[in-house]
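Following up on my earlier thread - several people asked me to post the actual chain instead of describing it. Fair enough. Here it is, all 106 residues.
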Amino acid sequence: MSRAGSGTQGRQGRGKLASIPINMGAHMKTTIDLSDDVMGRARAVQARSGRTLRSLVEEGLRLVVERLEQPEAPKTPFEIVPFQTGGMYPEFEGNWERLRDEIYPQ
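Reply from S.P.:
Thanks for posting it. Predicted structure:
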């Protein structure tokens, strides 16, 4: 005998209806040690937001796991510094010989 929409499967046993959970692996309980600083900050966020400590810990773990699962972007051997002016300095604009001479002095 089963109850629809309950998430459990009922079973007749010794004259009483027993509920048997179907999805036992959906949640896991564990104990974690947090520093006083992190716990205090989490409690403050919890009080302001009305969220549970469990939801904060789960969201934090999801963010860290997702970040660590992303492939790391290749590092460039140099720093890319964009021009702030939107182009070349005016004294070099259209003057390729002067620019060449500045880059490759003789």
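The beta strands are 8-13, 16-21. That should answer part of your original question.
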